[in-house]
Amino acid sequence: MLRMTDQPARWTRANAYPDMWADPDDDPRNNEDSPDGELATLQDFLTNYRLTLRMKCDGLDAGQLARRSVPPSTMSLLGLLRHLAEVERDWRNWLGDGEPLPKLYGAKDADFHGAVAEQAVVDTAYADLEREQAATDAAPARYADLGERVGKDRISIRELMVHRVEEYARHSGHADLLRERVDGRVGQ
């Protein structure tokens, strides 16, 4: 068990730039071409933040993914994966006028509380996240105008997309700190 006084040695896999997570030539987020159009730009940012979260989880076992940050927080990398699957599902509720989709993991904060060090939980979290991302990604393609307002709360598609980017960006920052706490790996 890692105690508050235990500090893993800081390290990185990058060679050319040791303050980075990955060397630029090895970073899947590096894209030479800037996307054209508002929706393509928002999707590009979203994709890159999703990749960042995945990179922060790479190479860790179930116990490391489930390791909590610092008491009393219940946050862990595995909890973040589950949380983001849950919010992807909830964003689809914003688009519809019908009954909301049921929660994936149960009551409030169950996404974090249920993030336990079991490989089956990890596998399910990744599968849930991929499925929910794909389902939510399909929704904006149905609207030609990002200003179109939909759902009970009349949210614009643009607002939904910006909110998705913001959510992943914020949690990528959490993932930076969580990963460093797990094994000392640092970087961009």
TrEMBL record:
Region entry Disordered, spans: 15-37
Pfam families linked: MST
InterPro entries the UniProt entry points to: DinB/YfiT-like, MST-like
Protein name in the entry: DinB family protein
Species whose genome carries this gene: Streptomyces tropicalis
